[in-house]
Specification:
Structural class: mainly alpha
Radius of gyration: 19 Å
Distance between the termini: 54 Å
Oligomer: single chain
Amino acid sequence: MRLLAMREHTRFELRNKLKRAHAAADIEQALKSLSEQGLQSDERYTELYVELRRNKGYGPLRIRTELREKGVEGALIDIHVDENDAGWSSLLLQVVKKKYGAQPPVDQNDLARRGRFLSYRGFPSHLISAYLFSD
């Protein structure tokens, strides 16, 4: 209960934190009880996490990878992270403007630098290419 009071956790995260001090059967029973009471929800966690990371300027590929690492099921990730959503391209433009300002790339090195940055941030290659080779 203390762990959930601080922030949302996935079922996977809670299981890993609790297995250090408790038996597996007790953990599963506690997780089931928390889920039934609505105190733990992977769906709620996923929704909040996607919104948080999106607001920080991360793209769908990075968010998807982070959620997988946190033990969220693929079907749940697919519901909340749609790579074809038009909002990702506007987010990419906002991230670029914040990092580089309104200045267009000046040379090939700058293009490559921007591409690597956007790739690291988790934007799909088709969006990166559309941004880099527009104009």
